[in-house]
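Quick question about two entries, pasted in order.
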Amino acid sequence: MTLTHQLIALAVLAYFLGSVPFGLLVGKLKGVDVREHGSRNIGATNVGRLLGMKFFYLVTLLDALKSLVPVVLASALVHRLPESERTALIHGLWLLTGIAAVLGHIFPVFLGFKGGKGVATGAGLVLGLFPYFTLPGVLTILLFILVVWVWRYISLGSITAAAAFPLLYLGIGLSLGWAVFGTQWPLLLAATLIALMVVLRHRGNIQRLRTGTERKFGQRESAS
């Protein structure tokens, strides 16, 4: 099996792994269907509001691992090739393993293609694609933490970090001499599309932020 075939197979597996609704499963184990309470989203933020912050952290970790694991496996395969032999196709397929997991989370086959917003799963993709996404990704995560710490809105932190990510990738890539506009163009395109997708998935949050009705980080909501 060639590297191309291995990466394609990993991407297919990553989609099904991404489709596992950990937020829903954790809620069910606690006797709560998160689709019927709060924002009705299966993501970590809604789970945390309904069940408590330790469950927010648990679901965030599980959702991140859905993309981190396949991307790390793909990274191990890709890094067997010398840098000079990594074509745009290889970069694109490497990236596809993570994108497939994110799409699985947002459009899960097990839940009628109605899933979460993809932030934690997107973070797993970013951290696993070393070093090209990892370096700007760490800065993005620090920015997310800063925004949430100052303003106490998970959604605002997610939107800000998502918008900053492609700019950070571009800036770091150019400063380090990466082939950002060469063989790595799929990475730049994906960074931009991921940012756009995350922002679009937060349209409702943006409206609530504008009206002052968005819930702050740590606020509990009754599941009764």
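Here is the second entry:
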Amino acid sequence: MDSVTPTAFWAAMTITASAIGGSFFFGASHAGEPRHPEAAPVEVVTELKVKVQAIESSVQMNRYLLDDVKNEIREMRVEQSSNMEIVLDAIDGGGRNGN
């Protein structure tokens, strides 16, 4: 088994070349087809991508608005608490908090 006969060498080369050529031919002939029979066309995917980006933009805007509303509610709670203390002090006749 130290040497390879010319017939065996050319047989192996032919099989290898056929496999490479077959793979190339198969890839080239199916290059224009979708990867999967149920794959969506490019136009549909692009349209969906645009819609998803619009939804993402809306979600980001709503998140910003909700954060703004949360901050305003916090400020209103602080102000309401302060006003409640003033009202309770007035009701007590200034007797709250040691006055």
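Reply: DSSP finds two helices and no strands in the chain. Residues 40-99 form one domain. Hope that helps.
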